[in-house]
């Protein structure tokens, strides 16, 4: 199965989603207690989307799940930045 949106490969789309998740990191300092949980939830959703897009990348690509791995690191950082 091939999948592309206006010329973007699934791997590029996954990297874009993870980049968006990384852009949300500075907002933890201005978010209230309720908003902090939602930022981590959004980060988890973007990782899940990147993981699903990884299945659309050809199996020959050795690093097809690399965006998901990078997204997991960003999710851990999101979790560490949450207020207790």
Summarize the structure in words.
By secondary structure, the protein is mostly helical. The protein is built from three helices and no strands.
Main β-sheet: number of strands, strand sense, barrel status?
Answer: none
Q: How many strand elements?
A: 0
Distance between the termini: 44 Å
Outline, from the CA principal axes? elongated
> From the helix content, strand content and strand pairing, which structural class follows?
mainly alpha
Provide keyphrases for this structure:
84 residues; elongated; 62% helix; mainly alpha
Question: In short, what is this structure?
Answer:
With 84 residues, the chain is mainly alpha-helical. It is 62% helix and 0% strand.
Question: Helix and strand layout, with pairings?
Answer:
Blueprint: H1 10-23, H2 33-54, H3 66-81
